[in-house]
């Protein structure tokens, strides 16, 4: 029995190790974009923004005085495994949406910014605007809606 338990444990940890290795590969694939995110994050933190890691993603909230005095063209922006949001509240509200973008960076890696831009142009060409008809935004909105229907926490 002891041996059997050991072998079950062994398989389980092998599967776990493979999953960890796969996750690491996804992170490496997205790393060129994450590096751009880290640079933006570093500058913002030096200017007073707050950063914390949530679900494996570095979330940066802009300083309160910025979000209250200015209108930003975006509520949150994802660069690889970095999400920059105008406030903690917006980061929380848009978490499922931005996490979907993180998965897109993991899937397409350094190609993603180009593919996103092409999807925007295609959407604009169809008369659906640069944002609303973008297939990556539609996918992120579906994730947002699903999270509202069946919250993770
Ligand atoms: Zn989006």
Please name the defining characteristics of this protein.
153 residues, alpha+beta, 4-stranded mixed β-sheet, 6 helices, binds zinc ion
Determine the strand fraction and express it as a percent band.
Answer: 5-15%
Shape: globular
The class by helix and strand makeup works out as alpha+beta
Low-confidence stretches: none
Cα(first) to Cα(last) distance is 37 Å
Roughly how much helix do the residues carry, as a percent range? 55-70%
Bound compounds, each kind once, are:
zinc ion
* Number of DSSP-assigned strands: 4
- Overall pLDDT metric: 91
**Cross-sheet strand order for the largest sheet:** 1-2-4-3
Q: What is the succession of H and E elements?
A: HEEHEEHHHH
Largest sheet: 4 strands, mixed
User: From the alpha-carbon coordinates, what is the Rg to the nearest angstrom?
Assistant: 19 Å
How many helices? The count is: 6
